[in-house]
Every structure is written in structure tokens, then in C-alpha cells.
Amino acid sequence: MSTAMDTESTYSGYSHYSGHSKKAHRQGRDRHKSPRSKDGSRSEKSVTIQTPPAEPLLGNDASRAEEGQDDNWGETTTAITGTSEHSISQEDIARISKDLEDSVGLDCKRYLGLTVAAVLGLLVFLTPIAFILLPQILWRDDLEPCGTVCEGLFISVAFKLLILLIGTWALFFRQPKADIPRVFVFRALLLVLIFLFVFSYWLFYGVRILDSKDTNYQGIVQYAVSLVDALLFIHYLAIVLLELRQLQPMFTIKVVRSTDGESRYYSLGHLSIQRAALVVLENYYKDFTVYNPALLTASKSRAAKHMAGLKVYNVDGNNASGQSRAMIAAAARRRDSSHNELYYEEADHERRVKKRRARLVVAVEEAFTHIKRLQAEEQQKAPGEMMDPREAAQAIFPSMARALQKYLRTTRQQQYHSMESILQHLSFCITNNMTPKAFLERYLNPGPTLQYDRDRWFSKQWTLVSEEAVTSGLQDGIVFVLKCLDFSLVVNVKKIPFIKLSEEFIDPKSHKFVLRLQSETSV
Question: Which PANTHER family match (predicted)?
Fold first, then answer.
């Protein structure tokens, strides 16, 4: 218990670091550059897809702790106090105001569509009931008596309306996953069809029943039943258009991340470009590895060194021509030897990764062995003196912290794993009695984007760039791009080819044969 409290007090000072101000300066500089990057693509048709805000994976305390934490959590650090200056430019203010206006416009459009759909749905469900009740209210004394068949129609209307209500709730009342830039065409067509259908029924009801005060009450009830039956058929049509039509694969799309070239293939049915973009983003967060810009710094530095060796000098006079030729020859030799540098650099990096990995595996196995020993000792103590998984994780974390930090730095993953997230994962593994291999799986194998903390990868805004209208359907050869702040996803659409299968009949007797042995054998 004392070890855990000492460890907790040692790590409790990780709230303010000097790296926080540098990080804020870099973020402010990136925000300063972002408006200029958007202005360069004014000639393209671009629309914006915004995902609804979601709660962070960690609590408020954990998120505040991660904001103030740098990447040196495995070593001895010093908590310092000071002031950090934050500056904001006019471009940042204009960008923030534009984002606010866009978000307000999208929210208004979303709530307007929901309001129209809710009002129309309420009108649909109240119309059959109104058809039955209005004659009873207005000219009840003149109506013919309702017989057994008429009373049975009341039960039919009630159950059909209940089925329609459940089906409508299951099909339309869902939590929206994203805000699409344009209206969903099939959904809008269904709303228009329902409005015209109900309006025509009301028009006929007003002219032929209300004006003439029809006394045939059974016919009026049958008219309401026919309306409910037609609404059930429209609901079936909505299921076909919104759900079943897109199930059959018709296109194969290739999604390529622009920075590192990682790609995936998916099969889609008949979808519009904006809905296909939503499918791509949903699969991106679970299939693609997390975007790590630190892995691109080595290739950029190597390319800069290569370009530095290929400088062209302007030499005045004919006497210096031999010196210029010598410089060009030296640059060519340096260019020819660049592949050797790349080979030895990658070999050395793999050797260091294997070495750090072996040290990390040994350190984690020893830490988990220590946990088992502590658990055996805690079982002999009183129930009130036992440590919880959080305290046990804090007790064994210092023994593996340095090895884990060196491995994450070597593989350039340190920015995605904070001390708080590692402690939470370690306490989770201890709670569920998981092995060291299960604990290390998150760090040894780069996982999908959803595996990491939301604040480190989640992009609230994506921009869809397409030459075609985003409401048009997918076609063979269409290319569209999904852009965020750091990278873009290039999507290429190919139609699945028509496959023709033929059948060939094989006679079962063709497989039979006769084996004849010679009667004479050699002695």
C-alpha cells in the first residue's frame, strides 16, 4: 500500500509542462495555415460532412491531465510553473466565426428536416382516426347503425396503425450518425409522396363525405381502412428504397490515404456519392491504422538530404568548368549511394525495434509476475487492506515505464499513448486477469484508429470534393476525395464486372477404368 501511494504522489505533479506551450504554438500555427490551404481549391466542388459531437472517452479530469502531459512520462520530470502566451490573429477569428456559422446552419437544416418529418408523420397517423371520428361528431344522428362487420374493421384499423407505428419507429427514428451536405433524395421523395397521398385522401373525403354528409358509416370506415393499407404499402416501398436496394454489391471502391498510401477495398451497392463517403469514413475509423505523421519525418529528411546533393551551380567563365563538372559528378555519386544509406538505416531501425521490444516484453512479464505475487499476499490479508486494480497498476508501472517509453519512441507512437491511458489499460488488464501478451498487443501492433483516445485522432469536419453532384449515384470511374486537416482519402470507384458462368456435364461412367494385371511374374 505504501508503494502505491508513493508512486501516486510521484506522478501526481504531471499537470503543467513547458511542452504544452510549444504544442499550443504549433496548433495555432497550423490553424493559421489552414485558411490558405482551403482557398487553393476554389475551382473544385466541395461540400462538408460534419459528425455530431460526442463525449470524450476519458473523463474531464483525465482529459485535463492529458492536455498538460508531455511525452517524457517514463523519465524523471520536473513540474514547473509559468505563464504561456497565446496569440490569435484576424484570420483565426474569421475562421472561428465561419465555423460557427456553418455549424448553426447545419443544425437549423437538421432540425428543420426533423420537424417537417415529425409533423407529416403525426398527420399520417391522425388522419385515419379523424376519418372515423368526424362523422360521429358532426352528424351522428343521421348515420346508419354500425354492424358486426363495421366493428371488426375498428379492430383491423387499430392493429394496422400499431404495426405502422412500430415500423416507422424502427425505420426512421434513429440517431443520426453524421450531417450530410445535401438532402437524401429517396427520403425526400417518400415524404413528398406521403404528403400528396394524404392530401388526395383528405380532398376526396371533404368533397364526397363531409359535404354530402354520407350516412353509410360502414363505407366511411372501409375508406379509412383503405388509407391505412396504402400507408403500409408505402412503408414497404420505403424499406425497399432505403434499406434493401443498397444491399446487393455493385461497385468496388479503393480508398487510399494520401500521406502514407495505405489502402483498403470495399464493396458497395447503389448509393449516392455522399452516402458512399459516409460508408468510407465509418470503415476508415475501424480498418485503417491511426495516422502517425511522425513516421513521415524520416522520409522527408532523407529527401531533403538528397535534394541538397543535387544543387546546380552557375559558374561564370570557362576556367571554372572543370570545377562544376567535379561538383556534378560528386552529386551523382552521392545520389547513387542513397539506396545504400536507406538500406542500412532501415536495417538499423529494425534492429533497435527488436531490441526495445525484447526489453519491453521481459519488463512487462516481470511486472505481471510481481502482480501475481502481490495478489497471493493480499489474499492472506483482511478484506479492507486489499489494493484495487488502479493502485496495483500504479505499483508496477514504474518497473516497465522506461522500457515502454523507449519502445514507443523508437516506433514513434509516444504521442498516442499518455501515462493516464496506459495506467487505465493496465488496470483494465489486471481487473480482467489478462496476460502480459494481451496487455502488450495495443503497443506492439498498431491498431485501428478507434483504439486510441478520441481527442488524438477525431476529426469533426470532413470535406467532400467531387466533380459530380454528391446526390448522384455511384458510377464506374468516379473519383472523389475526403479531406481533413492533416490528410485526405482518395476514393476510386470501379463497377463489378458481369460474370458469366457455364456448366459442363461430366459423365459418371467416364471415371471408370479396368486394371489388367499380367499373369506372368518375374522370379
Answer: VANG-LIKE PROTEIN
